[in-house]
Amino acid sequence: MGEDDPKSSFEDFDARLQSARQRQMPRPRGSQQAKPLGVAMRISVELAAGLVVGGGIGYVLDRWLGTGPWLMIVFFFIGAAAGIRNVMRAAKELNLSSQDDESDSGPRPSD
Amino acid sequence: MHNPLEQFEISHIVPMNIGGLDVSITNSALFMVLVVLVSSAFLILGMRRGSLVPGRWQSMSELTYEFIASMLTDNVGTEARKYFPFVFSVFIFVLVANLLGMVPYAFTVTSHIIVTFTLAMIVFLLVTLVGFIRNGAHFLKLFVPSDVPWYILPLLVVIEVVSYLTRPISLSVRLFANMMAGHTMLKLFGGFVVMLGALAGWAPWLFIVALSAMEVGIAMLQAYVFTILTCIYLNDAFHPSH
User: Fold this and answer.
1) Mind telling me how many Å the CA of B198 is from chain A's nearest CA?
2) Nearest to residue B238, comparing CAs of B137, B161, B133, B122?
3) Do strands B12-14 and B21-22 pair parallel, antiparallel, or not at all (unpaired)?
4) Which residues are paired to B26 by β-bridges?
5) Which of chain B's residues have a Cβ under 8 Å away from the Cβ of A77?
């Protein structure tokens, strides 16, 4: 029991330090006001762009190869997958940027 | 009543035709020239004295410079300083175009998808070129996700390539849609003020005042977003590890 006490108080301190840091350092750039709208905008645009590019590639390939609607259908789904992949990546980035406040100066971790 | 979309119309100012191509100077072209002039004036006149203790204009120019310089080194690294002129030009062009659009009666260059798409394509092609020049075939590793079973790898590579190709679209649509939506909304509520007259027109008028402030914020924010995405893409070109 004597071991348990300081450990938990350290953890508590850590949590308090984290929250204090977060309070003290709001995101330095970007306006707070436009943020939720910007996030919504970003996610939806990523998703739509995937569909547009996928469908476009399929359409062009179909016209070129004369393979009916098939490639367009296939690439439409691939485009949807790419869009979802982009959204996942964007969400990960947004999570990262809302969490980290120390690692601002280092180079961005590439995934 | 005015059409809220009328502000986006392209009108010819100096009609020109070279070899069957319509290369007239339009209001859009005029404002792009204005953007270049204003940003050059801002930087050149700001740095004219170049004193050790900067004045107001000089410190504004220096802040802009340092903002982009630190953004580039934070996101890509010090070796990317070679591309600073490009990134800075992109930033200042988008920023000044967005802000000039906020001046009443001005034309917003970035509210046309063809302008933002061209900008995004320039960024996209440059980044792809830099990636291939710096890493050679290694750059293709960007499209190969690590630790994935081999039987779904071909599908994932195709998905990654398509996802890479969406970059110019999402980059350009984001800027264009933000600028167009904002300006349409301003005009729309301006129409409401006229329609409701002195009796109730003050309510949309107050809204426009608040919205204008927010639009200035969005103008800067979108220039920032465009630039930081350019930096993130450049980072992929420099470090294509997946």
Assistant:
1) 30
2) B133
3) unpaired
4) B12
5) none
Q: Which of A35, A87, A110, A111 is the mutation pick for testing B, counting most B CBs within 10 A?
A: A110
- Mean pLDDT per segment of 10 residues, for chain B of length 242 residues? 78 82 86 94 85 83 92 86 93 95 90 93 94 88 83 88 91 91 90 85 90 92 91 88 62
Q: Where are the alpha helices (DSSP H) in chain B?
A: 27-46, 56-75, 84-101, 113-135, 153-165, 167-200, 202-238
**Residues near B30 by Cβ (< 8 Å), separated by ≥ 6?**
B13, B107
Q: What is the pTM of this model?
A: 0.79
| Residue of chain B with shortest Cα separation from A28 | B67
The Cα–Cα gap between B162 and B51 comes to 50
Per-residue pLDDT, B31: 93
B chain contacts of residue A106, beta-carbon cutoff 8 Å: 74
Contact B163 A75 (CB under 8 A): no
Measured from the Cβ of residue B49, the count of other Cβ atoms closer than 10 Å reads 11
- Name chain B contacts of A86, Cβ cutoff 8 Å: 163, 166, 170
Nearest-5° angle of CA B70, CA B71, CA B76? 105
In degrees and rounded to multiples of 5, residue B13 shows phi and psi of: -110, -50
User: Which token pair is B178?
Assistant: 């933000």
CB B130 within 8 A of CB B237: yes
- What's the CA gap between B71 and B86, in Å, rounded? 13
